[in-house]
């Protein structure tokens, strides 16, 4: 029985869990519970960046699709003739791809910075990290992004 588990004491035969590895801990003796920890800094950084990219990409893709839908429905509301032409379709594709590209860039930058901070904090405390922590930080990044997108963000924060 170990009293203190630290990142300096990586278990023998440890392998990095596959990417999502979001387990549902039914008890401390479950094998999934014991094998879903991150011990190395690069793995912590990698999981945080992957979750940030997934969440930011999905969020910005949805925002881009909503913007295109709003633009097309605006053309129909104002009775603009032939609102969907080759230029409009190309513009819609460019708009959605720009939203997605900028969201992925922002997700990578945020995930990389937070991943480095998390790995430094957990290494300084000699702790191992659950695979849920990078996922939760990805959600926190998205929620912070939503809160800062409003003009009254100083009141919210």
From TrEMBL:
GO cellular component: endoplasmic reticulum membrane
Domain of life of the native organism: Eukaryota
Transmembrane segments: 49-69, 89-122
Keywords associated with the record: Membrane, Transmembrane, Transmembrane helix
Gene Ontology biological-process annotations: cellular response to hydrostatic pressure
Membrane-topology annotation of the record: Multi-pass membrane protein
UniProt subcellular location: Membrane
Protein family membership: Belongs to the TMEM170 family.
Protein's recorded name: DEHA2B13838p
């Amino acid at each position: 029985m170990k009293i203190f588990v630290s990142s300096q004491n990586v278990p023998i035969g440890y392998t990095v869990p596959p990417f999502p590895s979001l387990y549902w801990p039914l008890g401390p003796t479950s094998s999934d519970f014991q094998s879903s920890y991150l011990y190395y800094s690069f793995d912590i950084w990698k999981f945080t960046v992957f979750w940030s990219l997934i969440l930011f990409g999905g969020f910005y893709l949805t925002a881009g699709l909503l913007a295109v839908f709003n633009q097309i429905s605006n053309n129909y509301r104002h009775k603009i003739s032939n609102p969907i032409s080759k230029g409009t379709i190309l513009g819609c594709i460019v708009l959605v791809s720009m939203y997605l590209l900028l969201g992925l860039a922002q997700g990578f930058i945020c995930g990389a910075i937070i991943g480095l901070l998390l790995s430094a904090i957990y290494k300084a405390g000699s702790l191992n990290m659950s695979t849920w922590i990078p996922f939760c930080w990805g959600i926190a990044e998205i929620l912070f992004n939503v809160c800062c997108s409003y003009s009254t963000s100083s009141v919210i924060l």
